[in-house]
């Protein structure tokens, strides 16, 4: 019996290691890209199953040795991906910025979950946090009506509720006006990308609000990846400081998320502070950081926090920023292959758009 359980543990260990290493492949296949999310869970599972296998006597000296080598390789890959989001890693922003109220920009992101009906929790959150910018994601007609309670609190309000992609409605509330704003649908995507120039009293800020589809059930990650990369490239080319916020449906350590960070010269507040998970609020073990607020130099962090639940499967996240240059900020330089890989993704997204249009 012990030997049988040890063999089962060995097979499970091999599967966990293979699943851990498959995302090394540069691909947009949905199930491979989905394996990027549970890295912390995979790493913990590999350690636990290896201990069980060894404690039960192993499955033969040679097989156990090779499985151990494979486990070490998988754990090393997880460690490399997860390291920037551990408390001992270097911070990208020291988080010590101070500024006068007229130079501060507070940003709140809340994916409310379309089926959630605890609107009073969301309204209370908005009023308690009192952000300058409030992105509300996964809204529909019901939420549109419920969120009208905030119209009196915010002078500026934009929204889009796609008729087909009903899980991707987006509401943007702002205390400051936008000199320009639009809901874009890049590459023919059916999920909106908010693009606005915020006219803040301390200076203009380019703002992107993102909520692309995740890789999911025969749905490749192409449009998600292309949307993130397009926003990053536009941020890089924008002379004014730029902010990206929303539910990226990509964990912070995922390949495209890191490439977005590098190409956009963006700062991730989670770096050096821990993963600060924002999903799944309803699970005790399947958790990873999906909801992001990233910014460029010219914006400096006073605080970043993950807030308590609001009845959704996401926790809200908030960043308090100063419109100022700050010493000690660090960006991750682009890799040599980043521009070419990004262009390949964008070209594939354009081809998908053209094929859908021709069809």
From TrEMBL:
GO terms for molecular function: endonuclease activity. Gene3D superfamilies: Endonuclease/exonuclease/phosphatase. The keyword Metal-binding does not apply. Pfam families: Exo_endo_phos. The keyword Nuclease applies. The chain crosses the membrane at residues 37-59, 66-83. Coiled coil: none annotated. Residues 110-314 form the Endonuclease/exonuclease/phosphatase domain. Keywords: Endonuclease, Hydrolase, Membrane, Nuclease, Transmembrane, Transmembrane helix. InterPro entries: Endo/exonu/phosph_ase_sf, Endo/exonuclease/phosphatase. This is Endonuclease/exonuclease/phosphatase family protein. It comes from Limimaricola litoreus.
